[in-house]
Automatic annotation (TrEMBL):
It is an enzyme of class 3 (hydrolase). The keyword Signal applies. This is Choline-sulfatase. SUPFAM superfamilies: Alkaline phosphatase-like. It comes from Engelhardtia mirabilis. Residues 1-22 form the signal peptide. The lineage of its organism: Bacteria, Pseudomonadati, Planctomycetota, Planctomycetia, Planctomycetia incertae sedis.
Length: 467
């Protein structure tokens, strides 16, 4: 372990000790146990970690996330289990890998939903007495994949919030702008903060996914250098933006707009006096290509599409800490459960692991292995491989294509950008990682399909850019 890493671990351990002592002192002399912490989980869709100022990005895209990290923990190397929303969400909401959740393709609507053999975070917290609610901004995060399980209040009907905008030409009816979703969440939160039981609120923002529904002119104008159309606030979209630099400016502005809505949620906690007893977590479901590896969007397994932010602050966490070790979104479930003081039910064994032992140095300083997968429909028009599986262990990342022989192997220490494929059929590391994928039963023989989809679902996927 390097000197810097030892110093970082020591500082984190000291911070955790101080947090534990403060909690112990605060409980002395009081017979009634303190109410268990609340949870605010905010999900930025399609948001790369390296486009947040929290992670060193040149533009100030995330002042609220920056402040959250300053009073809590920033995880620097966080990797998603998929770069499609329902597959990633099914994993981080259960702590299980996609090959166990039952949700493995965006396109299998109506044929795939969460397995009865996994337990969601909302189910567990509901059973333990939390008031739970989820507000999402687009169908890929919706109930059609079973992602509403355990939420006592759930709102994914984006048409209610988006129909009026669509009627005026503002985007489409299949997504809701972040401020509209935040309004609904704030209305629910206003009642929840006064209850005598803890609450768990998940809020999902979709703006950075595409240019279909953009921030209002007054927010956007100072953040882009290209000319905005005069009728922007009447039509709401910027689908005609084509230059790469303009598209990236727009992407960054949409992240900043989501960050502003996160600020509204945190401000509501402050006004209600609930900021100190609420665990606030900010994550993204996956990243975005932005032209790297000649691919602009997502759905593949390149690093830029899987590297995501994870920033959190609240009870039990040290302030101003940064975790450099590699962790995964599948680790969110067991980590949050531990921070909220909830015991896992007997027999429930998540694939993820709590990251808290990494902070106090009680486990070896070894990078977690990372599994990820992608399943697509062969007729989606995107030109992507229909099935991809990757396993990263140590410095090696192996990408498996069961439909062909163009497998990949990268040395991430020497080639973090994944530009030099070292795969050969007789490469021992590649053979070992492929054998591990097969041992897990991760590689399946069925690809995604659109043949069973109804007209409304096909329209939804087309409007969101998936067909």
């Amino acid at each position: 372990m390097s000197t810097d890493r030892r110093r970082s671990t020591a500082n984190l351990a000291a911070g955790l000790l101080l947090a534990a002592l403060a909690a112990l002192v605060g409980s002395c002399g009081s017979e009634a146990p303190a109410q268990r912490p609340n949870l605010l989980l905010v999900v930025f869709d399609t948001t790369r970690a390296d486009h947040l100022s929290t992670y060193g990005y040149g533009r100030e895209t995330s002042p609220t996330v920056d402040a959250l990290g300053a009073r809590g923990l920033v995880c620097e190397q966080v990797w998603s289990q998929a770069s499609l929303t329902p597959v990633s969400a099914s994993s981080f909401l259960t702590g299980a890998y996609p090959y166990r959740t039952g949700v493995r393709s965006l396109y299998m609507v109506g044929r795939e939903e969460l397995s009865s053999e996994v337990v969601t975070l909302a189910e567990l917290l509901s059973d333990e007495g939390w008031s739970t609610a989820g507000f999402v901004s687009a169908p890929p995060m919706g109930a059609r994949y079973g992602l509403d399980r355990g939420f006592q209040t759930w709102n994914d009907d984006t048409r209610k919030g988006a129909r009026a905008r669509a009627a005026m030409g503002l985007g489409n009816e299949y997504q809701r702008r972040a401020d509209d979703t935040a309004d609904l969440a704030l209305e629910w939160l206003d009642g929840a903060v006064g209850e005598d039981r803890p609450f768990a609120l998940m809020v999902h923002f979709f703006d950075s996914h595409d240019a279909t529904l953009v921030p209002p002119r007054e927010f956007l104008a100072p953040r882009v250098s290209f000319d905005l159309p005069g009728d922007l606030d009447q039509r709401g979209h910027l689908r005609e933006v084509r230059r790469d630099e303009d598209r990236i400016e727009l992407y960054d502005a949409e992240i900043a707009f989501q960050d502003a809505q996160l600020a509204r949620l945190i401000a509501a906690l402050d006004r209600a006096g609930r900021a100190d007893d609420t665990l606030v977590c900010l994550i993204a479901d996956h990243g975005e290509g932005l032209g790297q590896h000649d691919f602009w969007t997502h759905g593949l397994l390149w690093g830029e599409q899987l590297h995501v932010p994870w920033v959190m602050a609240g009870p039990g966490l040290p302030a101003g800490a940064r975790l450099a070790q590699r962790v995964r979104l599948v680790d969110l479930f067991p980590t949050v459960v531990e921070l909220l003081g909830v015991d896992l039910p007997d027999g429930l064994a998540p694939d993820g692991r709590s990251i808290l032992p990494l902070l106090n140095g009680t486990v070896p300083d070894e990078p977690a292995e990372v599994y990820a997968e992608a399943h697509h429909a062969p007729n989606d028009g995107q030109g992507r491989d229909t099935r991809l599986y990757s396993l990263t262990a140590g410095k090696w990342k192996y990408v498996h294509r069961p439909d062909g022989e163009n497998h990949e192997l990268y040395d991430l220490e020497q080639d973090p950008g994944e530009t030099r494929n070292l795969f050969t059929p007789d490469q021992p590391v590649a053979r070992a990682l492929r054998a591990e994928l097969e041992r897990r039963g991760a590689v399946r023989g069925v690809e995604g399909s659109t043949e069973h989809l109804d007209a409304d679902t096909i329209e939804m996927l087309r409007e969101l850019g998936y067909l």
